[in-house]
Structures
1.
Amino acid sequence: MRFRAKIVDLACLNHFSRVINTISKLAKACTLRLTVCKLYFILSDKVANGGASMWCELCQANFFDEFQMEGVAADHNEIYLELVPENLSRALKTAQSAKAVKIKLTNKHCPCLRVAVELPSLSSSSRIVTHDIPVGVIPRRIWNDFREPSVPDFDVSIYLPVLKTMKSVVERMKNLSNFIVIEANLSGEMNLKIETDLVSVTTHFKDLRNPPWVSEDGCQSSAEGRHLESMAEACIDIKKLQQLLAGQQVNPTKALCNIVSKRIVHFILLHEDVSLQYFIPALA
Amino acid sequence: MPFSAQLPASGEPYVLSASLDNARHLSSLLRAVHFQDHATCFATASGLRVTVEDAKCIQANAFIQAEIFQEFAVQEESVIFRINLSVLLDCLTIFGTSSLPGTSTALRMCYRGYGYPLMLFLEEGGVVTVCKINTQEPEELLDFDFCSTKVVNKIILQSEGLREAFAELDMTSEVLQITMSPDKPYFRLSTFGNAGSAHLDYPKDSDLMEAFHCNQTQTNRYKTSLLKPSTKALALSCKVSIRTDAQGFLSLQYMIRNEDGQICFVEYYCCPDENITEAEL
């Protein structure tokens, strides 16, 4: 098992740092899956996460100038690592004006991701700051736990409103309630609602579009034949939604959510080089 | 008016209904008196007064006169209710506190009367938020009985002169001592903290002094913790009037100019700290 990678381009480095920053806001610990072409950050839906799960995919070629990976075996050319993304985020914070960043999987006393940040210096030799981030190697026998979640059989799919507005509203609502109801219909309408003994607040978004889904096997999804005005709704933990929105520092190219009434809300946020899916289960 | 579709068709009039093109005209003033969760709202044809009290020693009032609103109608002689001010502020600022120049949140406020919730309709950029905030029985408020005939000393200062002093108030000092006198030091703020005593003097002929009417030398102490929240009102204001009466009660009146140049007032009343004896002064 070997892994070494290098980023030299400052823009790529900043982009990568932003992605890790977003991930660290969504998960205290997660799985990093390395393949020849891609990196995946995965959080599977355990009770400890409040049932939320995440699937984030990056094309390594868009970020790394050098990328060498040798998996656990020839026919399973992948590496699965458990790590705390906040550690990686903090290491990358020192790299804001770096000349290069090298990441290498090492096993001196225990498995670590060694992040070596080469910083500019006035003298001829560079300054290097090294961070050793402890990781856990995930054995092949449980790789099945980390398969890509399938798009649920949703009732309504809708593009999200302007994230800045949605972020402000959800942040204020978080002061007022622990739970939020998100409901939407196929007429481009979405409502965010909170209700407590003290106060009830509803924000109405209109003129959002509903993405046209083409199902792979040609079957009708449960969304077809649905009354256009009928709302699909789910009551979710407001902190999870707020963390998802707070982690979006740059506006995504596409942002949408799929609602399975009273079961789960599936968010898809697409940037040029990164796709992020986040599943928040509905509370009883 | 887009909100009229959401008003009930019952024909029952709202005892209070108001519209404001820029909700910040209201929210910024309310923040200046937000040092407790609960506030009493009092509405008459002249406008809205929001009162916050603490420890039976300090009272703050924010006045938003009817002219500030685009529409302000009160059906009864006066309307009064108690409300959670933190919740009210979260609702008024639902679209965020900082806004791009040129954009603002429009507000419509409706109240059906005793026992009913306060309804807020807020709109920004085509997005509408509807809030229903429960109201409570109003509690009796302190009456400081502060009228101009009982004033012993009064000065009016430009706020910029006091802002730094209040922002850097030595919080390790339990009291803020205010001396007002027709003779030197004229107007002095003193604190007695862990690091030592600090005195800040404002001479009566200072540029910052807009009016100086001191008849008697008075030195009074007020609990710093109670006065600290007034810093918010000071930060918003352009002028402040400082008055004391014979018992040492303090009145601070802040003149605040909003984004549209309209004038509003916030006042703070504070009881003197009784625990200090003359011997300690």
2.
Amino acid sequence: MAVELRDDSDNGSDFSRPGSPSPSSPTPSLSNTTSNRGQGIVDHTTFDQLLDMDLDDDDEFSRTLVHNYFEQAQRAFGDMDAAMSASDLLALSRLGHFLKGSSAQLGLLKVKASCEKLQYYGQRMDATGQHSSISNEEAEKQIRVLLIQMRREYDEAESYLRDFYGEQEQQQ
Amino acid sequence: MLCSLIRKMCTTSTTSLLQDTSSLQKTTSTYFNKAINNMTASPILSTISPPSSPAMSIESDFEDHDETTTTQPRKIKVMIIDDNSVNLTILSRLLNKHFADTIQLTSVQNSGLAALDQLTKDEVDLILMDIDMPVLSGVETTTAIRNNDSHSEHSILEQNLNVPIIAVTTSDAEEQRELYRQVGMADCVSKPIAIPKLRMAIEEAMKTVSTNG
């Protein structure tokens, strides 16, 4: 069952190819502005791959996906707060890993990085995931600080993405 | 019939015969999502020419088929498994957009248990599986498949026991990749998914199936 897969659109960020869908960013000027501001917040190589999956002149797919991510993140943050209150480090680690995946898929660099740290701290490892064991107290202390930072990074990413889609920023 | 005639005309030739499946794609478009329906209606995609390589389709060796049958090359039937709905949505869309010619997304599961249950009922050719999932991880699910342990009273279909499984995960350190290999996974693709890397992993995994008959 030898299979060679061909595809005419391997590079999701190459919008110059004939026949390829046009990017679904709201306006060119806004796109340039947000691309510059996106540095450090959003990896556009990854995010543009999602935009490439929108249909011509219709950003429904990527916009809906981003909104789903917002809902998912809010639920995750709520669960993290509950886990923190219960000192449930393993739950915090699982939640960190869970949100890391979808944050990575959207190209949200800082949120992804913080989720990874949460994953490690919750397993009582250091921030780099090395197998050095830290105490429960140290882990909780690090996580407490990290959750504040992560929330700030998420708010920044949400603001960026809502701006990208020309939406009013939601009141938290 | 036409293939039979061509074969008779070229008795000393080993030329592979390719069929234009664009009409077939139109009739099967109802199984695809809205995006694919719209895409196949586009002027560009409605004139898809036959595959450039005989290896593109699963069954490309027409000499093995009865002369009275006109076997259409079939697509790779794929199951994807991830407990994160955002990841499932992205992977589904990615497969439908970038691999529509050769892949048929037949099953989307949000847990290892649900996947095992489905594998007792339907045959798949390839599984793309997340690793870190609650209850049954990707490693545990793979082990269960290889050991025919469906966690239920039904057996996994025999055809699924050795199905190629590709891990799709952020847990992609070398020691983790080694673990995936040990439990019987074919490859590991990191998230965020890079389409060329996914393509290469799928090609390599399907070559393994071809080699093993």
